[in-house]
């Protein structure tokens, strides 16, 4: 199957979670024997921090501006079997208008930010999707499962709303091997990787910084940009501004425990696993997560993952001498069975095979008001 993807980023993983998501998915797509072209708008932030200029698993085409994007969409509509447009993609609304009106290829929207998207649609300020486009889509594929999929169908008329969660590549994420050593800066008792977000900061303080202050003999690590308060953190907390994907495995495998923190919009929606969860589990890390609805559908608490919402819980866990090898093995087995890039590519293929192509849909010129939420 020939797939075209218009997304936020593939060439650079700096400050975004989209690139690693697309990389795992499209590697899996290639492993299944299919072809993909990824279209990305040139942006200075990503071009200056490019860590994958020539992917071996798909074609990467960089675009400059709206006109080039629309020209690429015209080509894709006629040459591809299916086209995906991702959330936060520049010029996504006119791209979708063109694609949905062209007929031919099946057109899907891949929402890596579903709770944020729906909140913006309700307020009439979503910059990459119009509510009136949703009923015309062949498939609405969502990073978030659970009740939000029903809302997409019920309130927005989505014909086929299905989860397409993040994934990982087992060729890149696996446990430490006998005798393997990692850089001292990547070895810790508890690590957390994620870009600064105001709605996660209180949890970072409660579940990592305060435990660090109470356990000065242990080592803590935070990897991610934009933490202006890092100089005031406890001295046993190391801060790394950016960690390239090639170094993620070293962080996970070099950590006794890895911390997962969920953004508030994802907590409220539930059923929104982070790619860091799957990567860490694949590397054999013991994971501590904040609680959120639907977590138990991905990992069994106490058997495959530990859940903590308070400082004292994290401190008690870290004081254990052994980071539960059975828990680590069980989590790794779970993600190898259900959350690899190849598995996700199979799910994408099934969703596209089941979807019908739009037939020259005529869309409204202006954005309709968001429908009232039922119930």
Name the features:
375 residues, alpha/beta, Rossmann fold, 37% helix, globular
Overall description:
With 375 residues, the chain is of the alpha/beta class. It folds into 2 domains: 2-167 and 344-354, Glycogen Phosphorylase B (Rossmann fold), CATH 3.40.50; 184-339, Glycogen Phosphorylase B (Rossmann fold, 3-Layer(aba) Sandwich), CATH 3.40.50.2000. 37% of the residues lie in helices and 16% in strands. It has helices at 18-31, 44-47, 65-79, 92-102, 114-122, 147-156, 198-214, 245-253, 264-269, 275-282, 311-318, 325-338, 341-354, and strands spanning 2-6, 35-41, 59-63, 82-86, 106-111, 139-142, 161-163, 188-193, 220-223, 237-240, 255-260, 286-289, 306-307. Strands 3-2-1-4-5-6-7 form a 7-stranded parallel β-sheet, with helices on both faces. Strands 10-9-8-11-12-13 form a 6-stranded parallel β-sheet, with helices on both faces. The radius of gyration is 21 Å and the shape is globular. Residues 364-375 have low confidence and may be disordered.
